[in-house]
From TrEMBL:
This is MSP domain-containing protein. Belongs to the VAMP-associated protein (VAP) (TC 9.B.17) family. SUPFAM superfamilies: PapD-like. One of its GO terms (biological process) is endoplasmic reticulum-plasma membrane tethering. Residues 5-125 form the MSP domain. It comes from Digitaria exilis. Residues 129-160 are annotated as: Disordered. InterPro entries: Ig-like_fold (IPR013783), MSP_dom (IPR000535), PapD-like_sf (IPR008962), VAP (IPR016763). Residues 135-145 have a biased composition (Acidic residues). PROSITE patterns: MSP. GO terms for cellular component: endoplasmic reticulum membrane; plasma membrane.
């Protein structure tokens, strides 16, 4: 399903993973319309993630950054596989609508009411990935300087669960990307 209200980037949430360290990722929400669009972010695992802000209003043709912070993991999951998912819900709202006006029932689906859902999987990535090019001595480096090195990344596919709950937490690291609010 193509969303007509918001474009969510990235389409899969690539979360830096490091044992005993809290890490963050940024979701960029782009309003594709000439109207104000309210959003709400839900997750299947609200105790594991802090989402700031969990709801808001994106101005016409504007963008908004949502920071998602994963609590410090205590163990590595098998094959770095993660079953966690996020849901971004969006709806057109009237001019003058503020964050304080956003209530949960705004996103309830009803006949004639357009509520769009965008589902994202969480994919763990190494927080400090090793260099894809092995370190070489200066002599070896000059011999190999015109060779391109590519790293193939495995892809995974999961079905998306509908078991989402609201996100609301108090501690968050600031978003690292400039955003128009």
């Amino acid at each position: 399903m193509s969303n007509s209200l918001l474009r969510v980037s990235p389409s899969d949430l690539k979360m830096p993973f490091e044992l005993k360290k809290q890490n963050s990722a940024c979701l960029e929400l782009y309003n594709k319309t000439d109207q104000r669009v309210a959003f709400k972010v839900k997750t299947t695992n609200p105790r594991k993630y802090a989402v700031r802000p969990a709801s808001g209003v994106v101005p016409p043709r504007g963008s908004f950054c949502v920071t998602i912070t994963m609590q410090a993991p205590k163990e590595i999951p098998p094959d770095y596989h993660c079953k966690d998912k996020f849901l971004v819900q969006s709806i057109v709202v009237e001019e003058g609508t503020t964050v304080k006006d956003i209530v949960p029932n705004m996103f309830s689906k009803a006949p004639g009411k357009l509520v769009e859902d965008f589902k994202l999987r969480v994919i763990y990535i190494p927080a400090n990935p090793p260099s894809p090019v092995p370190e070489e001595t200066e002599e070896e480096d000059s011999l190999d300087s015109d060779v391109d090195h590519e790293v193939e990344r495995p892809s995974t596919s999961n079905s998306v669960s509908s078991n989402f709950t609201d996100c609301c937490f108090e501690h968050i690291m600031p978003c690292l990307f400039p955003v128009n609010h």
